[in-house]
Design goal:
By secondary structure, this protein is α/β, with parallel strands linked by helices. It is built from nine helices and seven strands.
Length: 217
């Protein structure tokens, strides 16, 4: 299977999780981080899911799955240990033309979830097209050691610089050289070690006056 890599905007969209165990709970956390309106169907949710219901973070239907639970949903994730139920969810989603993922069953999904390395707005996804989740996990763990919190801060800074340049009526094409210089410089390493004076000196050298990290982020 050859998958098309896509990052979905699910903010404020209705997303259904069927299954309230450990796997379902992890899927809920992933969708919540992306701003989805999460609905869980499970007769036996984990304590964490119960807490999320109590504070209004998710909606819970504490019962068995029904086909009409898909009404109004943008996507569904099946996270149960009942093979026949998982296949029923997949069939229902196919009929309703809804995005469907069944945990650990790529053959009955129309999308799969990659391993994720997240550092603020930096999101690195790894997929083995369902062939080896173990390899995807191994690669994720390696990447997590290579990309630290400084990359999240770096992206915040780059976004603030871009906005400032655009506010000064610079043409976007003219920014490419500046951004390439920032990326090729020691800026990320300087941010990792918190060397504010050196960061500001570098920003001045590349961008000129008016660019100081403490004023930008």
């Amino acid at each position: 299977m050859k998958y098309c890599p896509v990052h979905l905007d699910i903010k404020n969209r209705n997303c259904l999780i069927v299954g309230g165990g450990a796997v379902g709970t992890r899927k809920v956390n992933t969708l919540m981080e992306c701003g989805a309106h999460v609905i869980v169907v499970s007769p036996d949710p984990t304590p964490q899911l119960t807490r999320l219901v109590s504070d209004g973070s998710i909606t819970l239907k504490k019962r068995a799955y029904r086909s009409d639970d898909l009404n109004g949903m943008f996507l569904v994730i099946g996270a149960t240990d009942d093979e026949s139920l998982n296949r029923q969810i997949s069939k229902d989603a196919e009929r309703a033309h809804i995005l469907c993922n069944i945990a650990d069953r790529p053959e009955i999904c129309n999308f799969i979830l990659p391993s994720i390395v997240s550092r603020g707005d930096l999101v690195i996804t790894i997929s083995t097209s369902g062939k080896s989740p173990a390899l995807a996990k191994h690669l994720r763990q390696k990447l997590e050691t290579q990309f630290g919190r400084e990359y999240a801060d770096f992206l915040l800074l780059m976004g603030a610089i871009r906005e400032k340049l655009l506010s000064q009526a610079h043409e976007p094409e003219a920014h490419k050289t500046l951004f390439n210089q920032l990326i090729d410089s020691d800026l990320i390493q300087l941010m990792q070690t918190g060397k504010t004076k050196e960061i500001n000196s570098l920003l001045y050298k590349i961008l000129g006056d008016g660019y100081k990290i403490e004023a930008l982020i």
